[in-house]
Write a structure and sequence with these properties.
Elements: E1 2-5, E2 11-14, H1 19-29, E3 34-37, E4 49-51, E5 54-58, H2 63-82, H3 93-113, E6 119-123, H4 130-137, E7 142-146, H5 154-157, H6 163-170, E8 175-178, H7 181-195, E9 198-200, E10 203-207, H8 214-217, E11 227-234, H9 241-249, H10 251-263, E12 269-276, H11 283-295, E13 304-311, H12 318-338, E14 346-349, H13 355-364, E15 367-370, H14 379-387, E16 394-398, E17 411-413, H15 418-430, H16 433-449, H17 452-465, H18 468-471, E18 472-473
Parallel strand pairs: 3-5, 6-7, 7-8, 8-11, 12-13, 12-15, 13-14, 15-16, 16-17
Antiparallel strand pairs: 1-2, 4-5, 9-10, 10-11, 11-18
The structure holds GDP-alpha-D-glucose (GDG).
């Protein structure tokens, strides 16, 4: 959550922008549960409260926790490691200690407030030790975990000095969800390599005594030993598709989209990128391709405009500071080289926007650019599709997003292949209306069918089937 000042000067709460919040907000509204999270600023101590029908249980992080646990271990160790080391991960033992302590704090809060036999759903890479902590203290709980970002191949994951503890923490869950089946297989492989537990398809057999003691856990599994079954599989996340489509149809949003086009001088083609300012999103690659098209005269600023929204993110982490400088220099250079009095080549905005404005931008854009170098899913791609009730607009989508597994009618690109990206941009500009509509209709079917409600339902159903009480097996499972 972020604290903002309301119109009357009072302090009000707002959900922070980002993929996890977008996905979970509609789910939380439908259940009678509590959301344990941190208020988004250090040293804020507040009592539990209700926000828009959701019960919030704030956990306090100190200035040092934010530095070591959040900016450090979560966003400068795990984030780059899990995104295939696009940036170099940093390993610090103090950061790891803080990660363990903060995970303990979240676990303790859940242990305290969860009713007997309750279901606890733990989210994302910042809290991977929590499932194990819950399992030890509260074996009555049904425990789910969902990882919103990729899980790396073992060759990379093996770098992590605390790899065994992380895998152990996750194995405390009954169901471990990932975005893509490749992520789930990477995890199962890590389990085999680090612990030697038996795995078969999406199932993993964990010896019952393994949760407590590391030495016992590394012993080979044997038939006759009491086993707990853990499921590790993919559940591709989505958005509240119908809700987003409805938002984009509001007259005020449509008017705003027209206004955006007019303000830009009604160019023939508007391209759009919307991302947290993050090195995983491939913003530099997209700017490079766009700049080269201008240089080669294949596009010009009178007929084409690129809008890039880069929402501020992790602004105190060194790699993010460097990335912002690099992107802003590149934008400045492109505009300096090709802009005219009436036309900017790139309209760049480093702000967060209300959802209505995002929807208006999607409606105004002829071509949506999603060029991530690695991305768990990418909800922006799905939002663009949901917004386009007119069945128009073209999605250019990186193969390295989870979304590409499903959205096959997009124009798929390899963002490292700059010539390929440029050719795809031109193909999109030249695409006939009939072809655009054919593709967008197919994309919309996928996104409207597979929405966030279906995602959470699928996860929670699996969790119901595999809750520990039922999953205790003594036959050793796999052979
Ligand atoms: C992580 C994974 C995975 C962005 N700026 C503003 C704003 N947003 C909203 C977008 C979208 C969400 O944030 C971004 O979601 P993404 O999925 O694109 O990316 P991450 O934040 O990296 O999310 C990702 C996701 O978790 C879910 O599992 O898909 O792979 O990295 O909804 O619209 N929203 C508003 N103002 C902004 O300025 N209102």
């Amino acid at each position: 959550m972020d604290s903002v000042t309301g119109p009357d000067g009072s302090q009000v709460w707002r959900l922070s922008p980002g993929g996890l919040v977008t996905a979970l907000e509609p789910v939380m509204r439908d259940v009678d549960g509590a959301w344990i999270g941190w208020p988004g600023a250090p040293d804020v101590e507040i009592d539990p409260f209700e926000h828009d029908g959701i019960k919030m249980e704030p956990v306090t992080l100190s200035e040092l926790d934010v530095e070591y646990y959040y900016e450090g271990f979560s966003n400068d160790t795990l984030w780059p490691l899990y995104h295939d080391v696009i940036a170099q991960p940093t390993y610090h033992r103090e950061w790891w200690d803080a990660y363990r302590e903060v995970n303990r704090r979240f676990a303790d809060r859940a242990i305290e407030i969860a009713a007997p036999n309750a279901t606890v759903w733990v989210h994302d890479y910042q809290l991977q030790l929590v499932p194990g902590m819950l399992r030890d203290a509260r074996p009555d709980l049904t425990i789910g975990f969902f990882n919103h970002i990729p899980f790396p191949a073992y060759g990379l994951f093996a770098q992590l000095p605390w790899r065994k503890q992380i895998v152990r923490g996750l194995l405390g869950a009954d169901v471990i969800g990932f975005q893509r089946s490749a992520d789930a297989s990477n995890f199962s492989r890590a389990v085999r390599r680090l612990y030697g537990f038996e795995t078969k398809g999406t199932r993993i057999w964990v010896p019952e005594d393994a949760a407590k003691d590391d030495a016992a856990a590394s012993a080979p599994t044997r038939r006759g030993l009491s086993m707990r079954r853990v499921v590790a599989r993919h559940f591709p996340i989505s958005i509240d598709s119908a809700g987003f489509a409805k938002l984009a149809q509001k007259p005020s949003v449509r008017e705003r989209a027209d206004q955006i086009r007019r303000d830009l001088g009604d160019p023939q083609t508007i391209m759009l990128g919307v991302d947290r300012l993050d090195y995983t999103k491939g913003i530099r690659h997209r700017l490079k391709a766009y700049g080269e098209l201008l240089r080669e005269g294949r596009i010009d600023v009178e007929s084409t405009t690129l809008i890039q929204v880069a929402s501020p993110s992790r602004e105190r982490v060194g790699t993010y500071i460097a990335l912002r400088d690099q992107i802003e220099r590149t934008v400045g250079r492109i505009n300096g080289d090709y802009g005219t009095i009436g036309h900017s080549a790139v309209v760049y905005m480093h702000h967060g926007y209300p959802r209505e404005e995002m929807a208006a931008l999607y409606l105004a854009a002829d071509i949506m650019l999603v060029t991530s170098l690695r991305d768990g899913m990418n909800l922006v791609a799905k939002e663009y599709v949901a917004a386009r009730a007119d069945n128009d607009g073209i999605l250019i989508l990186s193969e390295f997003t989870g979304a590409a597994d499903d959205l096959k009618q997009a124009l798929l690109i390899n963002p490292h292949d700059i010539e390929g990206v440029k050719d795809t941009m031109i193909a999109a500009i030249d695409m006939t209306r009939a072809e655009r509509q054919r593709r967008m209709k197919a994309l919309r079917r996928r996104v409207l069918e597979n929405d966030v409600a279906k995602w959470s339902q699928a996860f929670l159903e699996e969790l119901g089937h595999n809750s520990s009480a039922r999953a205790l097996e003594d036959d050793g499972g796999a052979s």
